């Protein structure tokens, strides 16, 4: 599990002062990118080499409201991984009281620029698999 701290910005809130629901998906992405970076894989490097990872499926369950200036913790855990897809589970937690604000999941497919499924080469797969395996064992 990778944890990223962030702070709710004013622009992320609605007229009621509550975080707009769409921002949780952005936070999921922050966690996912941080996870890959921890594994030693840079998204821009993958893209430059012809590997994209578009979202195939996304879900979010909202539990409590996040408000402007709340410090949040984004937890990202990879729960499934193959050469053609990765599945992450997320928790968004308010830092001050550890209340879970939202939980979600994404499935990303690995594709080429043409949108067709493209198997990850060992150079990327091996790095991500090491971190994934460490988490599964721990």
UniProtKB/TrEMBL annotation:
Transmembrane segments: none annotated. InterPro entries: 4-hydroxybenzoyl-CoA_TE, HotDog_dom_sf, YbgC/YbaW. Keywords: Hydrolase. Pfam families: 4HBT_2. Gene3D superfamilies: Hotdog Thioesterase. It comes from the Bacteria. GO terms for molecular function: fatty acyl-CoA hydrolase activity. Belongs to the 4-hydroxybenzoyl-CoA thioesterase family. This is Acyl-CoA thioesterase. It comes from Candidatus Avacidaminococcus intestinavium.
């Amino acid at each position: 599990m990778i944890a990223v701290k962030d702070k709710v910005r004013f622009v992320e809130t609605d007229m009621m002062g509550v975080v707009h629901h769409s921002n949780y998906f952005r936070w999921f992405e922050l966690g996912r990118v941080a996870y890959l970076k921890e594994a030693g894989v840079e998204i821009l490097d993958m893209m430059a080499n012809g590997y994209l990872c578009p979202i195939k499926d996304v879900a979010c369950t909202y539990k409590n409201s996040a408000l402007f200036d709340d410090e949040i913790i984004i937890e990202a855990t990879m729960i499934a991984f193959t050469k053609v897809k990765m599945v992450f589970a997320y928790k968004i937690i308010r830092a001050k009281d550890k209340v879970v604000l939202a939980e979600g999941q994404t499935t990303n497919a690995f594709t080429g620029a043409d949108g067709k499924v493209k198997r990850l080469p060992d150079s990327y797969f091996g790095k991500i698999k090491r971190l994934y395996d460490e988490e599964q064992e721990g």
